[in-house]
Every structure is written in structure tokens, then in C-alpha cells.
Design brief:
Blueprint lengths: L6 H10 L3 E3 L6 H4 L13 E4 L3 H14 L3 E4 L15 E4 L6 E4 L4 E4 L12
Parallel strand pairs: 2-4, 3-4
Antiparallel strand pairs: 1-2, 5-6
Bound molecules: flavin-adenine dinucleotide.
The site of flavin-adenine dinucleotide (FAD) has 14 residues, from strand 3.
Length: about 120
């Protein structure tokens, strides 16, 4: 079951984002919903591929406005596939992957998706 999201709502979300929104009909959607466990075959209503912290905020607000379940994809290694909500909104942190280490201050900053090969952009 895939809940359809109106084009008007989608337009507003797209305007607010640095990253991308993917619908089930769009190129890159199947790749973005694929996780480590290939048995997970859930179809989110939309996938927000976040490029900034502001995008994450927008994605959470959008899910709340549309009353959609949220799944957060970090590395995509959750064996039960919690990152991929059926008919919900998937917050894909893949574009925000990265690790930065400051050896002098002994501080490591790890972003949301540090370890799984990112899906290619459509
Ligand atoms: C091959 C393999 C090797 C592993 N090796 C190790 C290891 O050596 N050490 C170790 O500690 N762990 C290991 N794990 C477990 C893995 O690190 C954990 O499952 C980890 O939580 C995955 O993080 P992720 O960002 O890849 O998860 P994702 O699948 O991207 O999901 C993000 C995280 O958020 C959670 N989540 C997503 N949506 C929601 C929601 N709506 N509500 C609540 N939670 C949510 C998920 O459960 C998950 O933990 C391994 C897993 C695999 C498949």
C-alpha cells in the first residue's frame, strides 16, 4: 500500500529542501528504499533525501502535517528494516554521510550515515 501525496503538497516540500524528494514513480526511488536486508520490500509514500539539518526538520514537519509514520535511514543496516516505513515518510540521511576527525582536540564528528555505500543520485 502506498499513500499518495498530492502534487501541491509535494511542490511546497520540494521548494523548502536543499536535498530531494522521491515518489514511488520516480527514478532512484527503488534504490533509495533498498537496505542491507534485501528481504525488506516496503514502499514509503515519499522519501526525503536530506542534504542538511534544515532538510531533516522539514521532513519531520511534513510527516507530522501529513500524519505519516517516519523511518530514519542512517546506514540501512537495521535487520528488521525500521528505516523503511510502509506508506510512510522515509528520512534518508545517505546524502549526509561523513566522518570528520580533529586529532588535536580529539573530537570526531560522525554524520547520520557513516558506513553504508550511498545510493547514487538519480
Ligand atoms: C552485517 C551487519 C553487521 C553489524 N555489525 C555490528 C557490529 O559489529 N556492532 C554493532 O553494534 N552492531 C552491528 N550491527 C547492527 C547495526 O549496527 C544496528 O542495527 C544499527 O542500529 C544500524 O544502524 P543504521 O544507521 O545502519 O540503521 P538504519 O537501518 O539506517 O536505521 C537507522 C536506525 O534508526 C532506527 N530507526 C529507524 N526508524 C526508526 C523509528 N521510526 N523509530 C525508532 N527507531 C528507528 C533503526 O532501528 C536503526 O537503528 C550490524 C548489522 C549488520 C546488518
Amino acid at each position: 500500500m502506498v499513500t499518495s501525496v498530492s502534487t501541491a503538497v509535494l511542490g511546497v516540500v520540494r521548494d523548502r529542501l536543499d536535498g530531494q524528494v522521491l515518489l514511488p514513480v520516480e527514478d532512484g526511488y527503488d534504490q533509495a528504499r533498498s537496505v542491507w536486508n534485501a528481504m525488506i520490500d516496503r514502499r514509503p509514500a515519499l522519501i526525503v533525501r536530506c542534504a542538511s539539518i534544515g532538510d531533516v526538520v522539514t521532513a519531520v514537519r511534513t510527516a507530522r502535517e501529513l500524519d505519516l509514520e517516519i523511518g530514519v535511514r542512517g546506514g540501512g543496516h537495521s535487520v528488521v528494516g525500521q528505516a523503511v516505513p510502509e506508506a510512510g515518510l522515509m528520512i534518508d540521511l545517505t546524502p549526509m554521510s561523513g566522518v570528520r576527525v580533529d586529532p588535536e582536540r580529539r573530537i570526531a564528528r560522525v554524520r547520520g550515515a557513516p558506513c553504508f555505500p550511498p545510493a547514487a543520485s538519480p
